[in-house]
Amino acid sequence: MNKKLLLIFCMLLMVSTTWAQVYDNDDDESSEEDEITVIDPEGNEEVIEFPEAMTYDLDSLLNLYMAKTYLDEPDDCNMKNVNPTYSKEDYVDRLYRMPCVMEMAYNDVVQKFIDRYSGRLRHSISYMLGASNFYIPIFEEALETYQLPLELKYLPIIESALNPKAVSRVGATGLWQFMLATGKQYGLQVNSLVDERRDPVKSSYAAARYLSDLYKIFGDWNLVIAAYNCGPANINKAIHRANGTTKGQDQTANGQQLNKDYWHIYPYLPKETRGYVPAFIAANYIMTYYSQHNICPMTTRLPAKTDTIMVNRNIHLEQVAEVVGINIDLLRSLNPMYRRDIVPGATELSPIRLPQTEVGRFIDLQDSICNYRVNELLNKRTEVEVKDDVPTYYHKSKRYSKRRSARYSKRRATATKRRSSATKRRSTARKRRRR
To answer: Any idea what the Cα angle at residue 194 is, between residues 189 and 195, rounded to 5°?
Structure first.
């Protein structure tokens, strides 16, 4: 009997050890999905917020059209639920060997994010490795245009989890999570019908311009990434607080230049920004060394080639879908910038992205497309008739009546006073004539 109990105990111990490997002890670090806890050499605990995009529910990401249509679960991945452990030296060496211009330094905070990516979030990483085939070429082309480090292509992973329709708690939108004011500043049109922050191509070029401008200000890529998250004003304040200077000074009290190292100003950054650069470093690590942690990318079937056509009339995407015979979800996925499925071509020439095989059919059927259910789908009236032969009735409130009564009373009193004065003057004149 004792041998059986011992055998059962050993089996349970083996299972618990494997379970710990799968999740890499994340549950011991924090019970919260959106936080990690770091203990410094002095024993103080620091809670760091996890990037919002990496707290998204995986099921919601897999519900996106591109994921449902062109991504599949890997079926040839061995040991995909076992996360091997490595020494600190292994992580340091791997980060050093990455072909990067940007500094990819190692520390305990970076390690915590690597553990989270390779542990609890390994299935999300599998999704993003597959989805990156859709978007990374667009990011690389925009970054290359402005001669920026190509490792910045992984910034949208911690910004939006590669969801072009992502909207943060504070309203940042799209793959690159542009705030409204910043997006407009960099030429992204936002109105009731169009939100170009959700356009993968236009937002990528706007993001590249913004990152280039930030580098001209700070000259350090880690500070650029931090400023992208919380704004350049907050980074400047952190730099001056860390160096003991007041805003506007370029030097410290003893005449030395300001220390603009990210890790030097780290304690003075907003809470949500302290984990941003470590998360970015860890994202570059896991997207490069995913195979070392038995993470398999979702298999990708790239969609057919696409092309754009410019229109000068308002068109509803349902008109295109029904007449041309294209899946409406595919159209929405190819044109995520149109918030209400309406292409405002009457306002200005507007692009519609279509599968390349359907462009010719769209051109041939354009009149039929524009006339299809037009009164139902595009029901804004261009002109209305006013019925001026019907009597108009006004509702008079008590306040209005009181004010009007007061005005009339004042006018009557003034008129009575004037008549009294005139009568008195005439009476005086008659008396003088009699004398």
So the answer is: 60
